[in-house]
Fold these 4 entries.
Entry 1:
Amino acid sequence: MPTTTMRTLLPEEGLTLDLHLPSGRLPAPGDHPDRAALRRDHDAWFRARTAQVGLDAERRLFEECEGVSLMCRVLPTADTQRLLGICLASSVLFLLDDVTDGDSTETSHADRYLAVLGGASADGGSAHLRLLGETLARVREGVSPRLWARFVSGFSEVITTAAAKSRSAVPDYAGYFAVRRADSAFDLVGIAIEHGLGLELDLDPVHLGAFLDACVEHAILVNDLLSYRKEYVADEPMNALSVLCRTEGRDLQDAVDALCRRLAAAEDAFFAESTALIGAHGRRHPALRPYLDAWALMLSGNLAWSLACPRYHGRDGGWERDVLPGRMVLHPDRTVFHATSR
C-alpha cells in the first residue's frame, strides 16, 4: 500500500488502531532530578545560537525539545554537566534529522557536515552547519578520545545514510530496517550511556553486538509505531508500518499487529542477551550491571517519551499515564490514546 493511499485514511473523527504493547518486564521510566535546570541551560545554549536558523528550529528545540526530555529519562543518575552535553547532542541530532532528510539543500552538503564532524571549521557554511559546529565543540567537553572516536563514526553514518536513503525505495522490511538503523542514531545511545555514567567498557563484541541489536530494534519499532500519524501526514515513507503495508500487502491494523509482535520479540531478546553478557563477563566487569540497567531505562524511557512526544502527537494528543494504552486514534492533527482496546 503506497504512503499516499494511507494518508487518505485519516478522517476528522480519527482512524482507530488496537495496540498490543509488551508490558511488565522493563523498569518504570526514570527522570533526572535536575531536569528543570538542564532544560533551562539547554534552551539558553540554543537561544544564543539560533537567530539565523529559523522558526522551525526554534519550535523543535524549545517547544518539542526531544533531547532533554528523552535523555533525562534514559540517564536519571548521570552527572549533570555530562548529561547537558548529551542533551545538546541529542537535540541537534533531532534537528538535523529534519534538515538533512530527503532531497533538502542541507542533504546535498553532506560532505561539509562530515568534514565539520571530523573537526573542520563550519565558517562559510549554512546556519544549520554552523550550529552543528558550535554544538559539537561543547558536546566534546569531557568525552574520552575513545568514546569521541566512536561518536564521530556513528554520527557520520547517520549523515551519510540521510544523504543516500531517498534515492530508491527499500525492497522489503529487512532492507528498510538496515537503512533505518544506520540513520536513527540509536547506536549512539550506548556511547551516551557510557559517557553519562563515567564508564569505559571493553565487552565481548559478539555478545555486545547481539545485545545492541535487540536494544536498537526495540527503540526503532517503538518510534515507528508511535510516530506513524506524523510521518504519513508528512508523506515520509521511512516507517516500518508503511513498509510492511507496501511490501507485504498488509492492511494497517495487520501491520500494527505484526510490528507489536516484533517489538515483543525484541524485548525478549533484550533480556536474553543481557543474561548472555553477564554470563560472558561476570564479575570481571562490575560496571556492566549499571550499563545494562541504563539500557533498560532507555527502552522504557523511550516508550514513555514516544507516547508523550508532542512532535508525534500534536499539542492536544499524547499519553502520560502509568498504564500503557491499548488503542490509538489517528486524527489529522493529533494522536489520541485510550487505556483499553476495543
Entry 2:
Amino acid sequence: MLVHEAEFTVDLGESGYLIGFTEHDDYPDEMPYGWRCGPAGPSSAIVLPVTDTGPLQLTIQIHDSPPAPETDNTWEPAEEISLLAGTDSIHLATVDPGDVTDAWPEDDRGVRMRLYCHADDPEPGIGDHGERHLIQLWPAPVTTPVHPPLRKEDLLARAEYAANRPGPLADCTTELPVHD
C-alpha cells in the first residue's frame, strides 16, 4: 500500500543524482553504464538519466509492501536494486531529506528500490528531454538486482571510469522543499 508520495522537479547536473539512506560524499566505485541505476554504496544508489543538464520530473513513492508493476507502456523496463536503510530519511542530491519513519519495520532494514524512467527524447544531451522518473521504495530483504543485459560498449565505459575515477565530490547541492 502507498504510504507517502512526493513529486517535484530536479535540475540535473552532468552526473545524474544520488538517492538513498545516507549522505554520500564521493563518486561510486563503479558507474552503472548500460543501466539507469546502480549502487553508490550499500545504502545509496546513483541514477543516470538521459538528461545531461536540465529538468527532470521525479516522483518518489514509499510503500509498505511491494507495489504492483506499472502497466503504463510509456515507461522503460523497470530496474531494481536493494539498499540498506540505516536511517529513516531519504537523501537526494538536491532535495531535503524526506521522513519515512512510518514505512520501515523496526527489525528489517532492507529496502527495495524500483526505478521507472521515460524520456520524450531518448538521446542523451543538455536541456529538457521531457524526462520523468518514478522511484518506488518498500521494505524487503536484499535480493538480486534487476537490470537489462550489458553491451560491450557499456563494459568498456565502466572500465574507463574505473581507471580514471574522479576524486571527492564538490559540495554544490541545493536544498529544495518537498511539498505533498
Entry 3:
Amino acid sequence: MRGLISDAEPGVLGIASALRQAIPAVYQEDPLFMLLCAAFDDLVAPLVTAVDCFDAYLDPYLAPADFLPWLADLVGYQGSVRQGSDSERTRIASAVRDHARRGTPLGVREAAARAAGVPVEQVQLDDPGGTRWSAAPGAAAGDWPRVAARVQVAVPGAAQASQQVRESVRAAIEEVAGVHCAIAVDVVEAGETTRPHRARPQGARTYGGES
C-alpha cells in the first residue's frame, strides 16, 4: 500500500513503470540525468502505490489503522475507532448492513449480542405487539397499555452478575431501537430460560432463542 516515513524502519518503494525506462537511450547515458529520474521515481512512488491500492484502503480489514476513522465516518459508523483492532474493523465492515437492520428485531438482537459478547442465538426478543384502531377520531388514543419489549441475554455465569454487561447491552439497544419503544433488559445465565409473568397479548411474537 503506502510506505512508512520512519527513521526506525527505512525502506524504498518500487514503482511499476520507472521514469528512466521511458526516456530515450541518449539521455540514459547521462549519469546526472539518470540520478534526477531516480529522484523523481522516489518522489512519485508513494502516490502511485496509494492509487494502485486504493481499493485496499476501502476495505476495513486491510486499511491502515490511522485511515480507519475516516473510513468509519464514510460508512456512518457511530462508535469510536482507537486502536484499529479486529473487533473495530468487524464493526466498521458491518456498519452499512446494520443501518438497514436498525430498529428491526434482528438488529436489536445483534446489537445486544455484540455488547454482551455472545452469539446472537443467545439473545431473545419478546415483542408484545398489538395495535388499536377506531373509526372515531381520537377514540383509540386513551388507556393505551404500557408494555415494553423484553430482551433476554444468556451469558456465562461469571458475567451474569456484572452490572457492566447489563448497562452495555442497554446502551447498545438504545442506539438501534426506536425512541418510542420501551425495552426491558434481562441478563440470565446461559441455559436458563425465563418467561414474562404478565399475560402475553394477542399478536405478541418472540424472536430468537426458544419460542
Entry 4:
Amino acid sequence: MDQDLPGGARLIVGVDESPASRWALAWAIGAARLHRMALVAVHVSRAPVHPFPEALPVQHAIRHGEETRCGEVVANVFDDVAGGMPEDLTTAVVARVGDPGYHLVDLAREGDLLVLGRGRRGLLSRLLLPSTSMYCARHARTTVVIVRQPAPPDDPQLSGERARRFWSRRHYQ
C-alpha cells in the first residue's frame, strides 16, 4: 500500500482508530495547509509477523491482508475527520505491519514534522502496550508534535448542581 513518498519537507501523521489519532489528523491537515507541506498518513498494524517471512508461505498473504486493512482504516479516518482525502494537499498513505514507533521513526527524516495523538489510557493498557508517542519523542531525528485528546466537557447543569451542594453543605450546617 506504500505510495511514492513526496520529496521535500513532509508532515507525517500516525493514524489509527483512536479518538486521539483523529485529533492529531485534524491538526496535521491544518498544519499541512498552513505550511504547504505534503501530508503522509501512516497506519501500522501490530499483527504478529514471523521474523523470517520466507519460512511460512501464508505469512505473505497475512501481511498483504493487514496492509490492505491499514489502507481502509486510513480512508475511514480521513472520511470521519475531513470528509475524505483533502483535494488541496499532496497526500500519501503508508501501510506497514510491525511496531508503530519503529516504523514512524524510520519514515521521518530530518526536516519532517512527525505528528501523533495521545489519548487517555488505563493502567493495564500502559503496562501491556508501550506508548508510541513517547517512543517517537525519544528516538525521532525530527520535530515531534504530540496532540492530546481533549477532555470531555462537563455538563454545565451537573457542575452547577455540584456547586450548589458544596455551598449548601459548607455554609448552612
